[in-house]
Amino acid sequence: MVEVTEPLGRADEPAAQPLLVMEAIDKSFPGVHALCEVDLRLQAGQVLALVGENGAGKSTLIKILSGAHHADAGTIRIDGRRATLATPADSQRAGVGVIYQEFNLVPAMSVRENIFLGQERSRAGFVNAVDERRLANELFDRIGVHVDGDALCRDLSVAQQQVVEIAKALSLNARILVMDEPSATLTSQEVEKLFAIIADLRSEGIGIIYISHRLEEVFQIADRVMVLRDGRHVATRDIGEVNREGLIEMMVGRKLENEFPARTPAIGPDRLVVRGLRRGRRVRNVSFSVRAGEVLCLAGLVGAGRTETARLVFGADRPDAGSVELDGRTLHIRGPRDAIRAGICLLTEDRKAQGLVLGLTLRENFGLPNLDRLSRLGFIRRATESETLGRYIKDLSIRPPYPEHLARNLSGGNQQKVVLAKWLQRNCEVIIFDEPTRGIDVGAKYEIYVLVNALVAAGKAVVMISSELPEVLGMSDRILVMHEGRITGEITDVAHASQEQIMELAVG
Q1: Residue at 30 is within a domain
Q2: pTM value surpassing 0.85
């Protein structure tokens, strides 16, 4: 239930009253003090960026605001009135809408049905589809984007699904809107449209909490920025009072001289050679090589065929034609097991759905591709499994450092480290990283970059797929750009390349 008391503050100063105040919020889980006396303030018509490393407490704070978690201590005030948000329904009634990175839509239901799910418009006991369709169109008009109300959500693009989530929140009269990594899977054009929607919502007096690891977006869209580190509130600043370097330092608690660690390449002979790879119109006659000690980046827009190419090399999909060679030997890859045995591994784009079994522990996930090395006479040696994983937990700074912790309870960055650990134990010769830093913080990114550098220094061949152009330019020795399933260009002088040069090749 929502418990409301008398307004706090002076009645003759309503304009100065924050829309949302969270004071001294404290929350602990077994073995983890997730939040320690955290304060947050949000004004109406303001975009507050909430940033911090993975595991800093951002998700826990938002889940308390959404009613999914209960704070151990602290108070929440909305419009100056104390609110007890015991359930998600309480939070919605109080005017809070949360759009999570993984959308909360029913794929088999229509746009209209998803928007009004649980609040159906009915007449004489029957759903009034005509009324719902009209109201849905009014919501989309308000947002400035039209989506067919009768289309199934599974047939929508990611950007359209996001618009449906926004419409759903507005249908509940949300005045506080939380967006968790809203641009993670959007194209640059879709991000621009999202920012236009945010600007319109802000002009209506809606307060927006914007969670993102993309700092360039924070400086573009936010009015203020709030930093969490290790469950504590470090600072809240007007966006004009901080620069990128200062913000990174507040987030990680130390100064990063460079976002991309320096490396002196020692390029050797070809290791992975791909010839004439084809699969329908997704991958069309793709050929390339990767050398020992080299980071080769595949760049391009969403849908260019980069992930599809990686899946073909790894055996996750069957090619129509083409061949894969490793160290001069032609491989016969019928599935991922063959690729793994040959020494090729793939860190998938979607670590939650394809990289991990979320209901298993860290130890169990770590052991899955390594059972032949961690078992004896058909029995898994759990002590060896835990001991081996323990070394990676220490080396990769996985938090919390418990082998029996469920994978689903880790932050995105720590989940990625577990995926890395299981493949490092495999000691593969070719490592394919598909969007390795998507949705993780700048400090964890740096740790992954250091690891990539260590792999190529050991003579491994690394293929990196990334949609972040600064990352492409900062990490690669060579860049291949794809468009509509084809390689449209190669950049060898990366030190003098530009984002504009990559984009020209990416649009064909």
Answers
A1: no
A2: no
